[in-house]
Amino acid sequence: MDYLKLFVWILGFASSAYGMQFNCSTMRMKFCEINNVMITEYTDVSEWEFPDHHDLAFGSYPLPDESTIVTTVTTELAEKLTNVQSLEIQNVSLVSFFLWEHLINLDASHNYLSELIVDPTSMYNLKSLVLRHNRLQQIDFLKGLFKLRDLDLSNNYLDKIDLSILDPAKELATLKLSHNRIRIITTAAGDMLHLPRLTSLALDHNQLTILDASQWQFNVLQDLNLSTNRLVYISMCEVQNSFPRLQTVYLDGNNWECSYLNSTLAQLHQTNVKPMSFGAHNCTEAVESICCS
Questions:
Q1: Of the candidates 268, 270, 267, 217, which has an alpha carbon nearest to the alpha carbon of residue 243?
Q2: What mean pLDDT is predicted for residues 89-108?
Q3: Do residues 85 and 103 make contact, with C-beta atoms less than 8 angstroms apart?
Q4: CA distance 95 to 109
Q5: Preceding omega of 51 cis (within 30 degrees of 0)
Q6: Section 153-181 average pLDDT
Q7: Fewest Cβ atoms nearer than 10 Å: which of 10, 30, 206, 249?
Q8: What is the structure's pLDDT at 6?
């Protein structure tokens, strides 16, 4: 941040802080944007007032906005935003976020978020949660989010996850877990995981060596992305039983043995599932544009 920008930021922030009243800096689509504000865990927001607007955005992402930093959304700040139903808070150095009940859509992408704070006694209305490009290492916070329809946790630091935590989210339609470090996906022992509305599941660009779908029942799943993992085997029996309406599956970028891959693709064709790939690159052998060895 150069000195001119710093001066403008201090001037804008100082006037806002003394006035304690924030207005929409600009309108983007339906969102009321708020710029020129700094909020940290030490900021006293007790006398601050924000626009009474259902759709709020801090900053102007994807355009760079060095004037706006919100490192945390505390309970005190959340109380000031209780009428907000859709919130975009991207690229503002956010680390922690306290979720309030009436929020329906949250996009907190491109931050340093490691914690989403939920109250187990609250009844949340959140339907869309986008937290891609953050620093999440666990998903325990999903326990109370029963109304989720779209969940994007791609580009985080997830390593091992138990999908059973999503079982109450019966409205979930899309789940994106791409570009993590996932080695193991588990399900509570002895229990079937039913996600009756899930149509799209993205697990690409992880470190899976095995996909155990034996306890999954995703009856309307249409699109499954398993590309760029370390898979050497998938159970066609599990695929047919767990994903009876599967239409497309991405398999490229794994450790397939060619004869096995050829057999698997033949079975997929018999069940009218279309194997997809992004094209074979830097490999000596391939079956239907999917590298193998």
A1: 217
A2: 97
A3: yes
A4: 11
A5: no
A6: 97
A7: 30
A8: 45
